[in-house]
């Protein structure tokens, strides 16, 4: 009975892990540039110094959905969205290059171009710093043009260019920080000049809220089934113990 109990418990735990993945997707349905995670369960044979007849469940995150989310028009000069495939290069919390689809850019107090999360945007030669300006334009290739503070409308200067990359999805992974990283530690991806930006737009999450809710409800029923199975095993174990006591 104890072996059956552990099998049922394993299924319940893995169902909870799967719910965590889908709940996180649903929680980020309105997060700019968020990429949804897939979830799958598979059987894992228990090996040891005996015949491997036991099989436990294991939930895993096999991949991330990289399809494009909805394009939301904002009209804001600092908002950009990647058209089709590709990513905007940023520096993560450890100063390493990472990649995102979130183009809700801002200029911080130090004049640095950052994302809505405060991550520095990568330019041609590192972080992008902007002088005091009157207006700013980001073109489709990521070039940043400004009119300096107090300058005339025709005094346009190109300051830098946002680094845009387009890696093979098999060579990248989504980290716990929500950013995209190369599977090869420390690898810096090359610029792809074919990537285009849409200025005045941001890209929404690619999460399908209805699909995620359906998965969560299905997993809830699976979890209830695991609990009922554990209750049945406990009752059967108690009944067996009573029979043994009577025959003792």
UniProtKB/TrEMBL annotation:
Flagellar basal body rod protein N-terminal domain boundaries: 5-35
Statement: the UniProt record of this protein carries the keyword Cell division: no
Domain Flagellar basal-body/hook protein C-terminal: residue ranges: 199-239
Highest taxon of source: Bacteria
Residue span(s) of domain Flagellar hook protein FlgE/F/G-like D1: 81-145
Chief location category: other
Location within or outside the cell: Bacterial flagellum basal body
Database matches in InterPro entries: Flag_bb_rod_N (IPR001444), Flagellar_FlgE/F/G (IPR020013), Flg_bb/hook_C_dom (IPR010930), FlgE/F/G-like (IPR037925), FlgF (IPR012836), LlgE_F_G-like_D1 (IPR053967)
Bilayer-crossing regions: none
Summary of subunit composition and partner proteins: The basal body constitutes a major portion of the flagellar organelle and consists of five rings (E,L,P,S, and M) mounted on a central rod. The rod consists of about 26 subunits of FlgG in the distal portion, and FlgB, FlgC and FlgF are thought to build up the proximal portion of the rod with about 6 subunits each.
Family: Belongs to the flagella basal body rod proteins family.
Name assigned to this protein: Flagellar basal-body rod protein FlgF
Recorded name of the encoding gene: flgF
């Amino acid at each position: 009975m104890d072996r059956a109990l552990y099998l049922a418990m394993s299924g319940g735990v893995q169902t909870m892990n799967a719910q965590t993945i889908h709940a996180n997707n649903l929680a980020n349905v309105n997060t700019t540039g968020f990429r949804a995670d897939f979830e799958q369960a598979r059987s894992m044979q228990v090996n040891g110094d005996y015949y491997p007849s036991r099989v436990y469940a294991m939930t895993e995150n096999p991949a991330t959905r990289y399809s494009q989310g909805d394009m939301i028009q904002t009209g804001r000069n600092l908002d950009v969205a990647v058209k089709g495939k590709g990513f905007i290069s940023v520096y993560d919390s450890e100063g390493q290059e990472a990649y995102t689809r979130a183009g809700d850019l801002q200029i911080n107090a130090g004049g640095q171009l950052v994302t809505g999360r405060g991550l520095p945007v990568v330019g041609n030669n590192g972080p992008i710093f902007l002088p005091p300006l009157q207006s700013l334009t980001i073109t489709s290739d990521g070039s940043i043009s400004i009119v300096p503070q107090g300058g005339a409308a025709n005094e346009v200067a190109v300051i830098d260019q946002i680094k845009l990359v387009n890696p093979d999805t098999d060579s990248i992974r989504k980290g716990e920080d929500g950013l995209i990283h190369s599977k090869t530690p420390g690898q810096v991806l090359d610029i792809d000049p074919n990537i285009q930006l849409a200025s005045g737009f941001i890209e929404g999450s690619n999460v399908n809220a209805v699909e995620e809710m359906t998965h969560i409800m299905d997993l809830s029923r699976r979890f209830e089934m695991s609990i009922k199975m554990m209750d049945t095993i406990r009752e059967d174990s108690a009944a067996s113990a009573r029979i043994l006591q009577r025959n003792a």
